[in-house]
């Protein structure tokens, strides 16, 4: 086994998250798939830190976690306010900016 | 010179059997959780599958020499972020499942094909370029003993500016969430307590006082027990109309009598 196995797992998780973003129609589930993609990238960053023998990758993963937390807060607030006005959390219904 | 450099070049680290076993178990669990998240119809099931994936990833971080990140993953992601997701799911309504209607024809199939192709490209690239790449491995003190100290030293020296930008980002996110969450309640002119009382006395409501509560503690502990007025008659408004509408017989209308308070009625009937 080599550390690249972690990278392969990370690539698989990222792809599954991307498929979920494209296929699912519930805005919250789409958001969870984005979180999964961020987590997959974190795993590859930790693996890169290990392969390089330096901690910089772990620091970058830490910053990615901070940004992800901020993104979740703002994104869920947006989903809530859209749900209040449109009574729906489906991303097909939020087409007000289209016209 | 070259010989010395070659001698100093660190040898590739050897991965132990324990780490391999943990990787195969936890990696399989993470993949299962990811697939379950995408395939589950119910959004709550998706959230729980994602929590499982995140826990497996935390274990993978820890065995890779990142104990700090592993515990941050557990506390921040599975603890805070997933609970936030569940809260919003419960607010939005968990039965708001996916619509089956396809807005763009063939979009799901195309998206799945795209994802599989993307995964194939990514796996091919990683496998071709990095599978034989040498791995130096973290030093033992970086990996276990002084991991938190060394990460902290890096954050507060080399990445100090990025760290301060992070604080600005967090404050902006908190303010943005408050603005977005309170935006809807601002326009509505809610009537205050004083205005409500004035409107009540002016006769804009059905009755001046609130409805009387049921006589729960007078004769029994059922909300179907009516309250008694001062002259002993039943206050009809004290029973909710929902209880009257239920088909279950609420033990009839109890008549107002003083024996019900003492509970001696049965003995008198026996005599």
Automatic annotation (TrEMBL), chain A:
Please write the reaction equations for the catalytic activity of this protein.
a quinone + NADH + 5 H(+)(in) = a quinol + NAD(+) + 4 H(+)(out)
Enumerate the Pfam families for this protein. Answer: Oxidored_q2 (PF00420)
- Which keywords appear in this protein's UniProt record, sorted alphabetically? Cell membrane, Membrane, NAD, Quinone, Translocase, Transmembrane, Transmembrane helix, Transport
- EC number(s) given by UniProt: 7.1.1.-
**What transmembrane ranges does the database entry give?**
6-23, 28-49, 61-83
Instruction: Show the Gene3D superfamilies listed in the entry.
Output: 1.10.287.3510
GO cellular component annotations of the record = NADH dehydrogenase complex; plasma membrane
Report the locations given in the UniProt record.
Answer: Cell membrane; Membrane
Q: Does the keyword Transmembrane helix apply?
A: yes
Q: Which GO terms fall under molecular function for this chain's record?
A: NADH dehydrogenase (quinone) (non-electrogenic) activity; quinone binding
Going by the entry's taxonomy, the superkingdom of the source organism is recorded as: Bacteria
Entries under InterPro entries matching the protein: NADH_UbQ_OxRdtase_chain4L/K, NUOK/Mnh_C1-like
Q: Under which main EC class is this enzyme filed?
A: translocase
Membrane topology label: Multi-pass membrane protein
Do the record's keywords include Membrane? yes
Return one Gene Ontology term, BP aspect: ATP synthesis coupled electron transport
Q: Family, per the entry?
A: Belongs to the complex I subunit 4L family.
Functional summary from the UniProt entry: NDH-1 shuttles electrons from NADH, via FMN and iron-sulfur (Fe-S) centers, to quinones in the respiratory chain. The immediate electron acceptor for the enzyme in this species is believed to be a menaquinone. Couples the redox reaction to proton translocation (for every two electrons transferred, four hydrogen ions are translocated across the cytoplasmic membrane), and thus conserves the redox energy in a proton gradient.
Query: What's the subunit arrangement here?
Result: NDH-1 is composed of 14 different subunits. Subunits NuoA, H, J, K, L, M, N constitute the membrane sector of the complex.
> What's this protein's name?
NADH-quinone oxidoreductase subunit K
**Gene giving rise to this polypeptide:** nuoK
């Amino acid at each position: 086994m080599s550390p690249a196995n972690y990278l392969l797992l990370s690539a698989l998780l990222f792809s599954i998250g991307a498929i979920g973003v494209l296929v699912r129609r519930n805005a919250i589930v789409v958001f969870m798939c984005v979180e999964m993609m961020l987590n997959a990238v974190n795993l590859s960053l930790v693996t890169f830190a290990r392969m390089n023998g330096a901690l910089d990758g772990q620091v970058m993963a830490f910053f990615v976690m901070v940004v992800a937390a901020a993104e979740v807060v703002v994104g869920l607030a947006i989903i809530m306010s859209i749900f209040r006005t449109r009574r729906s959390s489906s991303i097909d219904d939020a087409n007000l900016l289209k016209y | 010179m070259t010989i010395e450099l070659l001698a100093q070049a660190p040898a590739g680290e050897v991965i132990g059997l324990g780490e391999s076993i943990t990787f195969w178990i936890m990696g399989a669990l993470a993949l299962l959780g990811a697939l379950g998240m995408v395939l589950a119809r119910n959004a709550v099931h998706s959230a729980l599958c994602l929590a499982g994936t995140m826990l497996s990833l935390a274990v993978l971080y820890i065995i890779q020499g990142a104990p700090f990140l592993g515990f941050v993953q557990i506390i921040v992601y599975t603890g805070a972020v997933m609970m936030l997701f569940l809260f919003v799911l419960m607010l939005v309504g968990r039965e708001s499942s996916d619509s089956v209607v396809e807005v763009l024809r063939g979009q799901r199939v195309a998206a799945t094909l795209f994802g599989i192709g993307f995964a194939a490209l990514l796996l091919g690239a990683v496998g071709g370029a990095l599978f034989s790449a040498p791995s130096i491995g973290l030093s033992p003190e970086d990996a276990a003993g002084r991991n938190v100290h060394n990460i902290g030293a890096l954050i507060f020296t080399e990445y100090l500016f990025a760290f301060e930008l992070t604080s600005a980002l967090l404050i902006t996110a908190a303010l943005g969430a408050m603005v977005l969450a309170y935006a809807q309640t601002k326009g509505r002119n809610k009537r205050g307590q004083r205005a409500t009382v004035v409107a009540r006395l002016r006769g804009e409501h059905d009755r001046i006082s609130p409805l009387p509560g049921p006589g729960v503690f007078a004769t029994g502990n059922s909300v179907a027990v009516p309250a008694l007025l001062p002259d002993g008659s039943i206050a009809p408004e004290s029973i909710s109309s929902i209880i009257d509408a239920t088909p279950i017989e609420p033990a009839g209308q109890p008549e107002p009598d003083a024996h019900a308070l003492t509970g001696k009625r049965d003995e008198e009937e026996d005599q």
